[in-house]
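ERR on first pass: missing label on line 2. Operator R.T. fixed the label and resubmitted. Corrected input:
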Amino acid sequence: MRASVATETDEVLMARFCAGEAPAFDALFQRHAPAVRGYLTRLTGSPATAEDLVQLTFLSLVRSRGRFQAGSRFRPWLYAIATNAARDQLRRGHRPEELTAEGHLPVDVPAEVAGPRDVGLERAVRQALDQLPEGQRVPILLHRFEGMGFAEIADTLGLTESAVKVRAHRGYARLRELLAALREEATG
Amino acid sequence: MTPACLKVMDALGTPLPPDLAAHVAGCEDCRALAGGFEALESIAPSGGDAGAGAPGTGLETAHRLALEELTARPRATPWWRELLVLLGVDVGVMALGLALLGRGSWVGNQAAPWVVAGVGLLILALVGAGTYLALAPQRRKVPSWGALLLGATVVAVAQLAGGTGQRMRPPPMGGLGCMASEVLLSVVPLACVLVLLCRSAFQPVRAVAAGLSAGGVSLLVIHVHCSDGTAGHLLTGHLAPWLALAGLAVLLRSRLPTRSHAP
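pass 2 clean. output:
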């Protein structure tokens, strides 16, 4: 049983979960929860908020498994839930202790990969990323960090693939502009 | 974006074939695109799943809470069952409203029977479609707003065009009576649809659809019952409360807690 669960696709596991097999849910959780937490940490800028949102995401998955449609892909559905949870959190406001003195979300996200790194460059890149509008930032996060294709991102966000490509293209181009401006500030 | 630019987008993160590399070298848009993509290298993890292999207490808590929820509700409820329940409530309220208001004569509308029936069917279609739009899992949201606005406009225009122009009661009292009846009859459908809406992610288009369909229940009852057919009365006594209910649905849903964030 354990071996078969480990080799099943997400969609098969979800079908088995909907049919009442709890081990299928465990397998989906083990497979995706760390990545969803990483995504939510990047999206919100706050590890504590991301932990809360991971809980909401998987609670939503359990509560709404009857809304998952056979034939659709699991990962975009899961990331759609996570993105919606983060949007709802943003809409309703944040825990005051997680905001900066100016009332913004913190830009610094704890390091995920150990090893030598250019902290100044990282900060600049994160600042630039943070300045992108949500409509461009989310496709970029999903594409660059979660390794999703544009079709999957389109499923996640409920948009057409071409709309996602346009947003990502503008976002990447804007990111380069912002970084160039930040570099000029730093050197000037 | 040219087709070559789209190919470059699809190939980001992989070694570009010579023809695409040549395109990037000569295309300002693609240079900006590739520059932005490469800039994120400094904070990108080596794999797609950052933090994998580090369960942590937060994930353990998430897992435990999800399993508790699963134990409490071991059976999945298909989304269409909620749709059927809500449609049943809508039909019940319509029947009750017509029975209560239509004592003596079921149809008070003085317009030709085919006009009354035609507009009634349009409203009924809007109630069904609005309920579906509000509760069905969505994959694409592109057609939703357009379809919703078109449907609401068609119903509003049909209602006004189907008016007889006859005034039965003086304006303030007649309008207020219809308005009050419409609001009262909408309470149960609106409450039910709001409860069900909280079981999916907040989307304004869903809330508007829910409000229009819940208000449509009472709009149909008033349409059949009311004998006043002036444009002013139809606008203020029938259509304005209906549209206000749609706005109220968005306001209430935005303030209610979300039980599930599923699309």
